[in-house]
Write a structure and sequence with these properties.
With about 220 residues, the chain is of the alpha+beta class. The chain has two domains: about 70 residues, Glutaredoxin; about 130 residues, Glutathione S-transferase Yfyf (Class Pi), Chain A, domain 2, CATH 1.20.1050. Strands 2-1-3-4 form a four-stranded mixed sheet, with helices on both faces. Helix 1 links the parallel strand 1 and strand 2. The longest helix is centred in the last third of the chain and has 26 residues.
Length: about 220
């Protein structure tokens, strides 16, 4: 099985944690953000993560992949009767948070310089694409980050803290926790903003459970 991914992309990290939690062996293939050809050949789109299974099936989309992994590798299980509502909540709470990525993304190049996705061409592709989409430079977004965080993210992070106060999102550790911890992981790269310690502890707890460090590459 081949796993194509960007090591610090939250959607790729969702799958990476599930792979580790389920002790699945795979060939690790990190790509540069500038590599358009490889994903396009596999799925016709420049989107990761992608898994090429041993039987020849090729899939993308993080949620589809983790459900497929659960189906193919049912033990240890990360799915339960109650998982769908939790998974839906976990996969949307951060992604739909206003300005979350405006706060987080400008710090990636500082924190993860030298990672496989951030070679010279990858840095250029990432920076130009994210800045063009938001109409601001990373330097401008960094200056605005504390205000954006205060006005948009504090309430959402408080909701997350309340939800995981018992340890996990649901009754026990599940793929929903892999999803949420991955989506939140980038907050650890943000400078000069006091991220709730419960959020950091939760991410680290999920990493420990899976046996994987999302910051490391």
């Amino acid at each position: 099985m081949k796993f194509y991914h960007y090591p610090h992309c939250p959607f790729c990290q969702r799958v990476r944690l599930v792979l580790k939690a389920k002790n699945i062996e795979y060939e690790d293939i990190p790509l540069s953000y500038a590599d358009k050809e490889t994903p396009a050949k596999l799925t016709g789109k420049k989107l990761l993560p992608i898994i090429e299974f041993d039987d020849g099936k090729i899939m993308g989309e993080s949620l589809d992949l983790i459900k497929e992994l659960e189906k193919r590798f049912p033990e240890p299980t990360l799915s339960h009767q109650w998982i769908e509502p939790d998974l839906d909540w976990a996969s949307n709470i951060v992604v739909r948070a206003p300005k979350f990525w405006d706060v987080v993304l400008p710090w990636y190049l500082d924190e993860f310089e030298g990672a496989p996705e951030f070679d010279e061409a990858g840095i250029k592709y990432f920076k130009e694409g994210k800045e063009a989409k938001r109409g601001k430079t990373f330097a401008e977004m960094k200056k605005e980050a504390p205000t954006l965080y205060r006005d948009n993210l504090i309430i959402i992070l408080a909701e997350i803290v309340d939800r995981v106060e018992g340890g996990w999102i649901g009754q026990q550790f599940s793929m929903a926790d892999c999803v949420l911890a991955s989506d939140l992981s980038g907050l650890r790269s943000v400078k000069k903003i006091p991220i709730p310690p419960q959020i950091i502890s939760y991410i680290e707890k999920v990493e420990m459970k899976c046996g994987e460090d999302l910051i490391d590459w």
